[in-house]
Amino acid sequence: MSQSPAILWLRDDLRLRDNPALHLAARNDRPVVFVYVLEDVSSQRDRGGASNWWLDKSLTALKQEITNKGGQLVLRRGDALLHLREIADALATQDVFWNRRYAEAHREQDEIIKSSLKDDGFNVTSCPGNVLMEPWKISTKDGGPYRVFTPYWKSLQNSIEPRQILTAPSEFAPTKSIRSDSLKDWGLHPTKPDWSDGLNDAWTPGEAGAWDRLSEFLDGAIADYSNKRDIPSIDATSRLSPYLHFGEISANAIWMTVTSAIEAGEVNEQAARKFLSELAWRDFSYHLLYHYPTLPNENYQSKFDRFPWRDDEAALIAWQSGKTGYPIVDAGMRQLWATGWMHNRVRMVVASFLTKHLLIHWKAGEDWFWDTLVDADHANNAASWQWVAGSGADAAPFFRIFNPITQGEKFDPDGDYVRRWIPEIAELDNKWLHSPWNAPQSALDRAGIVLGQTYPKPIVDHSGARERALEAYNQIKSG
Ligand SMILES: Cc1cc2nc3c(=O)[nH]c(=O)nc-3n(C[C@H](O)[C@H](O)[C@H](O)COP(=O)(O)OP(=O)(O)OC[C@H]3O[C@@H](n4cnc5c(N)ncnc54)[C@H](O)[C@@H]3O)c2cc1C
Q1: Ranges of H-type helices in 220-250
Q2: Among 84, 212, 316, 412, which lies 20 to 30 A Cα-Cα from 237?
Q3: Using a 6 Å cutoff on CB, does residue 11 contact ligand 1?
Q4: Alpha carbon of 461 to those of 247, 272, 403, 450: distances in Å?
């Protein structure tokens, strides 16, 4: 007798390889129908523009892959529960599978759907989501959550039980055809205007793109990861973050691939372990998000509730558009706008500049990143912004204020990064590149720069802004 199909509800796990829920659903060659619902839940945060662009391409790639293997990906919009019930009815099945997600609004939604389906007699199977360790599986000696990364990382290494990478099914048995929306009708790709050229040039969303990137990284840049990962002008990091966010590759598969390469002596061990520790920062962010679900909206350290943030629309717009007059900050913000991604070192510098030099609330920066990053992530974005602002768990102390001039000089000494993203100051000598306002008039003339016209004068004075930030911090320090 032919088996009824299983339904696999996809969310942030847009892949066929190393997908635990798919592995269970497709056991014994059982037919699987893939479902993706563009959810319409008011408690869930709307995806930003760059994430919508990525999702569009990722679903296109996945649909193609599933279709090539004889299966179907059903796209629906609206209430996931209604659609799952209707599709299950049409397929005469009662088995639904998914991989877990960890943001509070997602967990609550999944809980509601799970119990409703169970009340209706469904079998619902949920599997571990895209983390190395589920957030509740790792705890301090006294049973609480970790708040500091280093002991978390130690504990993770001792307790991790990576699974062998699960292979993707080679084909899917045919099933009754189910009505699907057209991806085009979802309008995820930007129009009027279409600002996505830079994203198209920079990325190949989808599972194949993820594995290509990992292989390329293991064949090349990982060797120098430890000493070059802070240099924004070179491709020294993996750029796997958006693929991880959308679950086009699993953290487990990256862990297994890298540790196998270490064991086989194929990569520099010290550099590869450093890379794995960065991957673990992502897990730590999820650990924090799970245990402190208000992390994306509220200060982890409540004393920051009294911090005298400034409302300064003009300064916020200058920051967003890469026109602060500080080249390393502006280069980062323009890289973000053009490609949907920014180098980690520069993310730290621009976030420090917004929260400390401009005294603008970290939430305004987190919102902008949410809209513009292709890797915008509930856990990583919130945890990282709070880390830089000083309000987070295991955060950089507030008084450690990045100097945008010396950061530029240290991490972009030849100015390649700044010249790439700010062509209007490209002709300036290295000596002045990170502080054009200090350049003598003759140097500015030679480079064709008119400060305040072709490139902005600094919107704040570094030393004055630093003093102001420290004074603001003094007001809450004792709390
Ligand atoms: C203000 C700010 C906001 C950020 N917002 C996000 C975000 O929305 N989404 C996001 O994925 N990352 C975010 N990060 C973390 C980090 O900048 C990116 O993960 C990293 O730059 C991605 O590039 P990569 O894949 O080449 O990293 P690699 O250096 O190759 O690292 C491999 C993977 O490890 C994880 N990782 C690396 N560094 C960190 C870190 N500091 N914190 C958490 N995970 C890390 C990422 O998943 C990354 O893909 C933010 C950092 C800052 C300072």
Answers
A1: 225-228, 241-245
A2: 316
A3: no
A4: 42, 40, 11, 19
* Ligand 1 atom closest to the CA of 350, numbered from 1: 1
Per DSSP, the residues of 392-450 read STTPPPTT----HHHHHHHHSTT-HHHHHH-GGGTTS-HHHHT-GGGS-HHHHHHHT--
Q: What is the CATH number that goes with domain 6-129? A: 3.40.50.620
Q: What is the pLDDT of residue 479?
A: 58
What's the CATH code, domain 302-474? Answer: 1.10.579.10
Q: d(Cα 470, Cα 340) in Å, to the nearest integer?
A: 32
Indicate whether residue 344 lines ligand 1 (CB < 6 A). Answer: yes
Read off the pTM: 0.97
Q: How many whole angstroms separate alpha carbon 318 and alpha carbon 336?
A: 14
As beta bridge partners, residue 36 has 10, 75
Instruction: Dump pLDDT digits (tens) for 197-246.
Output: 999 999 999 999 999 999 999 999 999 999 999 999 999 999 999 999 99
- Asked whether 217 lines ligand 1 (CB < 6 A), one says no
Please give the Cα distance from 375 to 402 (Å, whole number): 24
Percent of the residues in the chain that have a pLDDT greater than 70, as a whole number = 99
Q: Where are the domains of the chain?
A: 6-129, 131-163+206-291, 302-474
CB of 437 shorter than 6 A to ligand 1: no
Distance 281 CA to ligand 1 centre (A): 8
Q: What is the pLDDT of residues 378-407, one digit of tens each?
A: 999 999 999 999 999 987 888 889 999 999
CATH number of 131-163+206-291: 1.25.40.80
In sequence order, the β-bridge partners of residue 123 are: 95
Out of 229, 278, 279, mutate this one to test ligand 1's pocket (max ligand atoms within 8 Å of CB): namely 278
* Residues 78, 100: Cα–Cα separation, whole Å: 20
DSSP 455: B
Q: Exposed, middle or buried: residue 116 (CB in 10 Å: 0-12, 13-18, 19+)?
A: middle
List, for residues 159-190, the tens digit of each pLDDT value: 999 999 999 999 999 999 999 999 999 999 99
One-letter identity of residue 186: W
Substitution candidate for ligand 1 out of 235, 241, 257, 363 with most atoms within 8 A of CB: 241
CB distance 388 to ligand 1 below 6 Å: yes
Rounded Cα distance, 365 and 381, in Å: 10
